[in-house]
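Hi U.,

Before I forget, here's the chain from the pilot set. I'm dumping it here mostly so it's searchable later in email.
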Amino acid sequence: MEAENNTSRLNYVNKVFHVSLWGNILLSGLKGVIGVMAGSTAMIADALHSVSDVLSTVVAVGGLKYAHRPPDEDHHYGHGKAEIIATKIVALILIITALGMGWAAVQVIRQAQLNIPGVQAVWAAIVSLIIKEAMFQYTFRIGQLIKSNAIITDAWHHRSDALSSIAALIGIVGAIYGFPILDPLAGLVVAILILKMGIKVYWNSLKDLMDPAPDLETVKKIINVAENIAGVRSIQDVKARQSGPEILVDMKICVNPKVTVETGHEIAANCRHRIVKEIEEVGDVMIHVNPCYQMEVVHECSECERRQRFQEEST
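Structure:
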């Protein structure tokens, strides 16, 4: 089951990779050539943004594929955090690209090298806007479907490129109608938008390195599944953390103290299997089996203190 999920996830990743890669190569070439021909600083800046999209897509997909490698002698818990590393690199690419674009636009403004761009730059910006918004919608939906922060980040990179195309379009049209300063100013706005996106993505990737817990609803689902396993008397402790695309869970369960070690192991194995099967985000579950000393010979054991505290907090 886990192998099938990984295969399906990688198939989606490959689809996103090819759509993003070839789409960005086409757009960066188109905008770069037309930007030079039309003498548009904003369009050239937009082309550089698309070039950074090519790099970020390669990094994001490469990181995702590496994250799906199985555990080995050097990485006992797998390679899931490679996705976080890829996200950080994508963010750095965005930030570096934005700084370079902003510097170039400022230099054009300072040197008063203001050109009136050709009308072909307008059509290039419109085409870029339409294609990039379509790429955002496609990539974002895939990212949500496979719950990949790296793919969702790459999708927002497409959206920032679409926004930069809007800024470029405004600057180019304004320059054509007698305000040439608007073209390099639009390039500067594009750079600021990209810089803002890069900083936001980098900050979120830093938070991911802290092994954040999943949302409360997911934790409640894990507990509910475990509680319905035959032989599980109560749940003593549940800890979960996000590791790349997966959630890793550690938990303690109470069982009848009179059962054999083999039976206790079977209960724990069934619990792990059901959680991984029913909650697809969960990659692995480590279960510690405790004897339930609160249980009398005939009656069921009472709820554990931590379970009671969790239910009080969730209501």
